[in-house]
Sequence to fold (1099 residues):
Amino acid sequence: MSSMNDKLNEIMLMAGQFTFSEITKRQFSVNIKSSGLLSVLGLFRQKGFTHLSLITGIDRLNDEKFEVVYTLFCWESGETILVSTLVDRKTPVLPTIMEMWPVARFYERDVHEFFGIVFDGNPDLKPLILENWSEIPPMRKDFDPHKYSKEHFPDRKYNADFLPEGGGEDE
Amino acid sequence: MLFAIFYMLDKLGSIDFSTVATRIESATVEVQLVILISLGVMVLAKMGVFPLHIWLRGSHSSAPDEFSPILSGALTKIGAFLLFTITAALPSFRIFSQLPVFNGIPMVNYTFALLGGISIVVGTVMAIRMEDAKELIAFSTVSNSGYIVMALSIGGTYATAGGLMHVLNHAMASAAMFMAIAAVAYRTGTTKMHEMGGLILKMPVTFATYLVAIISVAGIPPTSGFVSKWLIYQQLVQNGLPFLAFAAFFGSIGSFMYVFKPLAGIFLGQLKPQHRNLKEVPLVMVVPMAILTLLTVFWGMLPSNAIKTINAVTASVGINAVEVTFSRIVALTGEWDSILVTTVFAIGFFISLFIFMRAKKARQVDLMDNYTAGDFLYTSELYHFSYRMYRPFDRLFEKWPSMEDWLSSLSDKIKELGALLKAIFYPANPQLYIGLAMVAIIGTFWWLR
Amino acid sequence: MIITILSAIALLILAFAYTVTLEGIARKIEARIHRRCGPPFWQNFIDIFKSLTKHSISHGFIFDFGVLMALGGTIATVLFIPAGNLVVFPGLDNVFVIIYLLAIGLLGMAMSAVGSGNPNASIGIGRALTQMLGYELPFMIVLLGVFFHFRTSSLSELAVLQNSGGTYNVLIMPIGAVVGFVSLMGMLGKKPFDTFIAPAEIASGPLVEYSGKYLGLLMTQHAFGTFIEIGLFVNLFLGGGKTIWEFLLKFFLVYFLAVIISSIMPRFRVEQAVKFYWKWPLILSFIQVVIVVFIMGRRV
Amino acid sequence: MNNEQTAWERVANMLRARSLWMLYYCTGCGAIELPPTMTARFDMERFGIGPMATPRQADILLVTGYLSTKTLRRVIYSYEQMQAPKYIVGFGSCTINGGIYYDSYATINRLDLYVPVDLYLAGCMPRPEAIVNGFKNLMDKIDQGEATGWKDYEANYEWYRKNQIDALGEVYIHDEFHE
Fold:
C-alpha cells in the first residue's frame, strides 16, 4: 500500500486534477483528463506498470461521453491500475499509445471498430473482427442489436399458444 | 591396384587369373595378404563402401543428369567384378583357411563383409536425411554396394549367387531411378524434392518407372530386387551371422523410408503452379526407362533364367549352383515360387477391385479440397508436405560425428603439407631449381648402377 | 488345384470373420476396462459394411490404385499364413516372402495416403515408416535365431517341428518370444505405438482423406493385417496348433494380451518409440541370437 | 415420407443406424455434455456411436450451441466435406431459435435455414440422458429411412445457398481478418 502512495504523490503533481479510488488491496482506478493521458501512462510505465493488458471503451450515452479505460499491470507488485479518461461522443479522438506499447495497435483497432473512437497516429484503423459491416459501431448504446438480428438472421415463427396474451411475439 | 599387379608379376610370374589362382595357394601368407588386401581396397573405393564412400555423394549428384545412371549403374559394378574375382576366382576361402576363422568365414573376408554391412547402415541413414533426390540415390548406391560386398565376401552358394543377382538388380534399379530423376530435372530444372510436387499427373510414365525401380530397390516380391535379397538372407541364416544380418535387415527396412521420400516429394501431392503446363518427357528418354522397368518386373517374376546364367558363372569358378526350377527357387532353409506370389497378388488385387467396383462411384475431388480442420486454404505450395519428411528420425542422428567433416579436415591438412613441400622443392629462382634437378638426376644414376 | 482354391477361400473367410469378431470383442474388453458396457461384439462388421454403403470422394488415380494395391497385397499375404492344419501352400510359405509381401500393403497405403495431398497423411506415413524401422529390426534378428536353430524358414514346417518336438519356441527362446511380442505390438499399431494414426494430433494420420468405401476396404485390410501379424507370431513362437481350433485359441490369447496392455498405455512419440525399440528389444534380441547361434547350436 | 424402401435400402439403413460416427467438431458450449455421454455412466458407444477425427469419415455433425457467423462458415464447409448419408444434430435452444443470444448481432437464430437439421435436442444444453434419448430417436428415424436431410440439401441447394449468402456475405471467405 505504501509503495502505491508515494507513486501517486509524484503523479498527482503531474496530472493536476484527477480522482483516485481503490477497488481492492491490489486494484486501483484513476480518472484523468484526456490531455494528461500520455504523460500519466508514461509515468506509470516507468513506475513498473509495464504490462498493458487491455484498452476498452464505455458508452456514456446520457452525458454524451465515451470513457476509454487503459488497464495496466505491474509484475513486481502485482498491482493493477485502471487509467480512464472521458472523451466527447461527437468527436471521439485520442492520441495513440503505440510507441509505448506496440500491442496497443490491435486494441485501438478493436475499440475503433466497436465504438468509433479515432486514435490518431495509429496507422491501420481497419476493421478487425466484423465482416462487411455497414451499420454504426455495434457497441454503442444507440445501436439496436435486436433489430439487426431480426433483419439479418430470420428466426422461427411459431404460434406459441402457451404464452399470456400480452407477452406474445413482439412482432 | 597397380602395385598389386606388379607385385603379382614379381612374385607369381604372371597376371593371368587362372595361373594366379593356381600359384597363389603355394605362395606365403604375406604375399597372399598383400595382393588381396590391395585389390580389396580398390574394390572398396570403386564401389563406394564405408570408409571410402564420400566421393559418391559429390560425384553422383553433380554429374550431368544423363551420365549419373551409367556412373552408378555400371561403373560401381566393375568393383563388384573385381571383388568376385578376388573372393571366388582366387580361392580366398582355401587360402585364408589357416587364418582365424569367424563362424566359417576367414577373417579377411569377414572384415570385408563387416565393412559392407557398415556401409549399408551408413548409406541408409544418410540417404534418409538427404534433401536432393540425386544425393539420396547416390547414398542408396552406397547402401546397395554394401549389400554386394557383404554377399560376395561371405561366399557360399546362395550369397555369391545373391550378390551377383544384386549387381544386376541394383544396376537396373538405380539406373532407372537416376533416369527418372533426370527426366524430372529435364522438365522442371531442379532435383530438390521440396521444390516439386504432383508430377504424377504430368509425367505418368516417369512415375511408373520410378515406382517399379523403388519397389525393386526396397526388395518387394514381384520385382527382381527381392530375389537377390532373399538369396543373401538364406546364406545369412544358413551361416548364422547375427551382426551382418542386422545390417542387411536395417538396409532393407530403411530402404522403404528413403525410396519413398522422392516418390512423395516429387510425384505425389499438390502440383506447383509453375509446373502446370509440363508435358511428358520425349520418347527417346521414355524408351530406356520402359525397357529397364519391364526387365526388372520380368526377372522379378521369372528369376530362373537370370539365375541359370549366374549358375553358369559360379560353376566356372567351382561354386555349386542354386537349384532352381521354372518358377521356384529352392534354398537350404526354404523355397518360394515367384510366379505363385505374383498370381496370388493379382488375385488379391482383383478381389479388392471387384469390391471397389461394387460400391458407389466415388466423386472426383481435386487436391486442394482437403480436410483442413475447417479452415480455408488457397496457396498450394504451403500445403505439400515434403521438406525434411523424416524430421524425428534426423533428430536421432543429429549429434553423431559426420564422416565428411572429418575427412575434409584431413584433406585440408594434406593440402597444407603439399604447399609446404612445394615451397621447399620448387623455389622461385630458376638456378636453384636446376641445381636441385641436377642433384636428383645424379642421385638416381648412382642408385641404379 | 481345386483343394488349394477351396482352402484359400476358406482361409480368407476364416481370417476376415475371426479377426473382425475379435476386434469387436477387443472393443468390449476395452469398454469393460473403462467400466462401461461397450458395443456388441459384431459392431465391427456393421462398421465395415456401413462404410461400404456410403458415398465417397477420390483424389485421383493414385489414391484409388494405392488402396487396391494395399488390400491386394494383404490378401495375398494372408494366403501364406498356415492356420493350424489349414495350409494353403504347404512348402512355399517362406517367412521372408510374408514379411516383404506385407510391405506391399504398407507401400500401397503410403502411396495413396500421400497421393491425397493432405499434410496430416504425409506426416502419418513418415511416422509409420520410421516406426517400422524401429520394430522390424529386433523381430528379424530373433527370426534369424529361430531359422538357424530349426534350419528352415518355412512357416508350416516350423509349426510342425515345434509340435513334433513337443517344446514350443516360447519355452526354448523366452527372450525371443518377449521381443517378438513387443514388436508385434508395434506392428499392430496398438496403443503405446500408434503414433501414426493418432486421432488427436494428426486427425487419424494416413486415414484422414478416406471416406465411404475406401474406409471399408482399409478396415478389412487392417483386419487381414492383424491376422497375418498375430498368425506369424503364433506359428513362430507358439507352435501354430495341430488343429484349427487350437490355432484360433492361441490367436485369441495373444490378441487378448495385446489388447489389455494397449488399453491402459499412453502414446509414445515417434523418436521415443524408435529409441525404445533400438534399446531394450534390440539388445535382448542380440543376446537371444548369440545364445542360439553360438551356444544352443542347431536342432539335433 | 415415402418409406417403401427397397430391401437393399432397408439393410443399408439398418447398418447406418447401428454405426453412427460422430465428428469431433464442437462448435459451442454443448460440447461439454459429450464426454459424460461417451464415458462410463451413459456410454454412447454401446449404440455404435463413436468420435471420428475427420469429416470424411463422419456421419453425424453435432452443432452443439450458439453459432456465430464465423463458426457457421466452418460448419457449412465441414458439412460439405462429409460424405453422403450424413446427419446434423442441433443441440440446445441456440440452434432452434437463437436461445439467450436471440438479440445478438453476431449469432444466427435458426440453424435449419442454412444446413438441413435432422434432429433438435431442446434444453439450454441437454443433459446426457436427453442426448442419448435423442440419438435413439435419430437411430429410429434412420431405420425408417426418414432422416433424409442430406437429400434435400442437394435437392434445394440454391435455397440453402441464398440463405447462407444473406447471412454471411460469402461462405468461402478469403481475407477474414483484413490482413
